[in-house]
Amino acid sequence: MNRKRKNAVILATLICLLIISILLSLGYGKGLGAVFCSLFTNEGFGLILRKIRIPRTIIAFLVGGSLGVCGVTLQSILRNPLAEPYTLGIAGGASFGIALSTIMGLQQVLGALANPLLGFGGAMLSVAIVFTLSKKRFFDPNSMILFGIVVSLVFSSFVFFLFSLLDPDKMQTTLMWLMGDLSNLDIAFIPVYIPMFLIPTSILFFFGKELDILSLGREKAQYLGVNPPRFYKGLFLIASLLAGLCVSASGIIGFVGLIVPHILRSLLGAGHTILLIASYIGGAFFLILSDVFSRYLLYPVELPVGVVTGILGGFILLFLLVRRQ
Amino acid sequence: MWLILVVLFIPFSAHSYDRIISLSPQITESIYLLGAEEKLIGITELCRRPAEAMKKEKVGTPLRPDAEKIVSMRPDIIFGTWEGNSPIAMARFERLGIKTHYFERPRTMLGLLDNFLTLSRMTGKEERGKRIIEIAQGALPKEKNNKGYKVLWQVGAEPLIVASTNSFANDIILLAGGYNIIESELPYPRINAEEVILKAPHVIVLMDMGYNVQLEKDRWKRYFSRAQFVTMDAYSVGSPTPMSFVDAVNRLTESFR
Amino acid sequence: MMEKALFSANHVVFRYNHHIAIDDITFTVDQGEFIGVIGPNGAGKSTIIRLLAGFLRPNKGFVAFSGRNLDEYDRRELAQNIATLPQATDTPFSFTVEEFILMGRYPHAKKGFLYGKKEEEFVADIMETMEISRLHGRRIDNLSEGERQKVFLSQCLAQDPKALLLDEPVSHLDIRHQIQTFDVLEKLHNEGLTIVMVLHDLNLASEFCSRVILLSKGRIHSDGDPGSVLTFQNIEKVYDTVVIVKENPLSGKPFVVPVSKKYLKKE
Question: Is the CB of residue B118 less than 8 Å from the CB of residue B12?
Answer without folding.
Answer: no
